[in-house]
Amino acid sequence: MPKVSFNESDSKFGWIVSLAFWLVLFCAVGVYASVALSPKLLTYLNLHNEYYVNQVRLVRIEKQVENLGRVVVALETDPNFSAELARIDFDAERPGDERIPVDPELSLDGRLANATLSVPATSLPWYGSLLKVVANNNRFRTTLLFTSAMLTILAFTFLQESQTRQLQAGIHGIHHGFRILFNRYRVS
Predict the structure, then answer these.
(1) Cα separation of 20 and 16, whole Å?
(2) Which among 37, 90, 104, 158 has the fewest CB atoms less than 10 Å away?
(3) Residue 181 CB partners (closer than 8 Å, separation 6+)
């Protein structure tokens, strides 16, 4: 392999150093953003779930109000309905009526049963558990902030184009060491 001087390879290696600088810096920003935004995102997700639950309750209550409105109209306009409702309420029987036993949930009740407004269980998205850890665990948050700071220092200290020669020499040394290791066990 022909030996290349550092001046010729600086331009070839400089873009790699620049790319590494920006990648490390973006990683530092991402780690910092996860710490800074996780409490806000967790609050948003909890509020979104609460909004959904309230919407479901509202729709069910609106349906219940609509049904009760129809009962009110029927009570005001239909005397047969009022009579039948009173008969059911007072458990009165007409002569010649025959009772057929049925399950309690199938029996006709004159009063509207207290409808349970059960709400479907909501949960956080797949990343919710990690979000809770980042938002609530102060030790983990501090570790992430320290990591972000160290990545920033690493990027601005070692990944500058002025450090290209030192980085290239270090990588060349590591490459040379691996070559010696592999050549030692190579069968001729």
Answers:
(1) 6
(2) 104
(3) none
Q: Which two tokens stand for residue 103?
A: 């399950």
* Dihedral of the alpha carbons of 93, 98, 104, 105, in degrees to the nearest 10: -100
Q: Identify whether the C-beta of residue 41 lies closer than 8 Å to the C-beta of residue 132.
A: no
Please state, as a whole number, how many other Cβ atoms lie within 10 Å of the Cβ of residue 147: 15
Structure tokens at 40: 């806000």
Please state, in angstroms and rounded to a whole number, the distance separating the CA atoms of residues 28 and 168.
24
**Cα within 13 Å of Cα(115), Cβ side:** 12
- The C-alpha atoms of residue 163 and residue 158 are separated, in whole angstroms, by 6
Distances (CA, A) of 136 to 35, 46, 49, 70, 171: 10, 14, 19, 50, 41
Task: Please give the Cα distance from 19 to 78 (Å, whole number).
Answer: 81
Q: 35-86 pLDDT, tens per residue?
A: 999 999 999 999 999 999 999 999 999 999 999 898 889 888 888 888 777 7
Assess contact for 75 and 85: CB atoms under 8 A. Answer: yes
CB atoms within 10 A of CB 127: 12
CA 4 to CA 109: how far, in whole Å? 95
Q: Residues 162, 38: contact at Cβ < 8 Å?
A: no
Q: Environment class of residue 9 by beta-carbon count within 10 Å: exposed (0-12), middle (13-18) or buried (19+)?
A: middle
CA angle 141, 145, 148 (to 5 degrees): 140
